Predict the structure of SDR family oxidoreductase.
Amino acid sequence: MKHPLSGRTVLITGGGSGIGRLLAEGAAARGARVVIWDLSPTSGAAACASIRSRGGAATSFAVDVTDREAVASAAVETGPVDVLVNNAGIVTGKRLLDAADEEIERTFAVNTLALYWVTRAFLPGMIARRSGLVVTISSAAGLVGVAKQTDYSASKFAAVGFAESLRVELAKDDTGVDSFVVCPYYIDTGMFAGVKTKFPRLLPILSPDYAAGRILDAIESGRIQLIMPRFVRTLPLVRMLPAAWFDQIMNALGVNNTMDAFTGRRQPAEPKTATVDRQV
Ligand SMILES: NC(=O)c1ccc[n+]([C@@H]2O[C@H](COP(=O)([O-])OP(=O)(O)OC[C@H]3O[C@@H](n4cnc5c(N)ncnc54)[C@H](O)[C@@H]3O)[C@@H](O)[C@H]2O)c1
């Protein structure tokens, strides 16, 4: 195992729900000390409570990863991190002309720019220790543009570019630190509630437990890229065709109809008696 989780400190942004929460629980079960950063003041604390009730080690901070000052001070409070999982993400799921300017800006602030603020906070320590891993949770939408995802898909293409550039930069400088990018198709967490897939055998909507388990296995084994399901890995081959053919193939696969019935996550109300480990 290149990056065993046992005994390591693993920070997961957006670790209060969905894939982030399952990654936090799974990393703790594999012996990691888990730190959760989440915008929601309650969900991170709830995830920690669940981990601790099973004998795991976990702390949470309520922090908005788009807020550079909050990121810097939360990083000081968090201390050294061995594995950083940049997982926090949002989606609007609207046509370009239907999305508000603020929704477009927020998508890039969370899905793209926050990668810079959070990674820059922890990378110097990793480089000084000549050990560490930066995980970027991008998306299959970071490999192919999808109707009703002009902001989301572009922000995830940027995440792929970020992780790949970082990977070669860290290797070129012989830092001992790795960068790993994850590009999953839809996962049944509620973030993309309502999406439909035309060919579930080729392009299944992934179960959150399956996706989180694959990601944790890939972290430990030292993979640098994880694209799932397998069929999505054929994209570079299809891209060798003329772009108009590529679009027709994506349409035939139903990719550009997946978002037709998208509703997205309906935010649960925050309980009034919120438990927060730390507020930043
Ligand atoms: N669900 C999918 O179909 C799917 C597919 C491919 C990639 N992804 C990516 O996986 C990641 C996790 O997705 P998910 O389905 O678990 O989503 P989710 O909505 O269940 O969880 C996202 C978490 O991020 C947190 N968050 C949002 N904005 C934040 C901010 N500014 N600061 C801190 N925390 C913030 C939320 O509070 C939430 O706990 C995202 O980056 C998403 O883009 C999801």
